[in-house]
């Protein structure tokens, strides 16, 4: 998610993913929780409305950026 006014950045820590406001108040806008082990990768779609997260719990989750809901959760047996 990126635009000049109100740009936001995504950071992930241990078991949660946090979306941070870069300009303005510099605070967490939303926290995405659902993995049981540390998150290892996050990728947004082109318009920033959804993102995938991959975790050491061997799940890949498709998140709705605005609602924080998981649309799809896939179990991966090998990395």
What do you see in this structure?
The structure is a single chain. With 79 residues, this protein is mainly β. Helix content is 0%, strand content 53%. The chain contains no helices and seven strands. The strands form two sheets. Strands 4-5-6-7 form a four-stranded antiparallel sheet, with no helix packed on it. 14% of the residues are buried. The mean pLDDT is 85.
Brief rundown of the structure:
The chain has strands at residues 8-13, 16-21, 28-33, 39-44, 50-55, 59-64, 70-75. It is mainly beta and 79 residues long.
Distance between the termini: 27 Å
The low-confidence parts are none
Provide the spatial order of strands within the biggest beta sheet: 4-5-6-7
Summarize the amount of helix as a percent range. Answer: under 10%
Proportion in β-strands? over 45%
Number of strands: 7
Major sheet characteristics: 4 strands, antiparallel
State the order of secondary-structure elements, H for helix, E for strand: EEEEEEE
Structural class label:
mainly beta
Dominant shape:
globular
How large is the count of helical segments? 0
What integer is the average pLDDT? 85
* Rg over alpha carbons: 13 Å
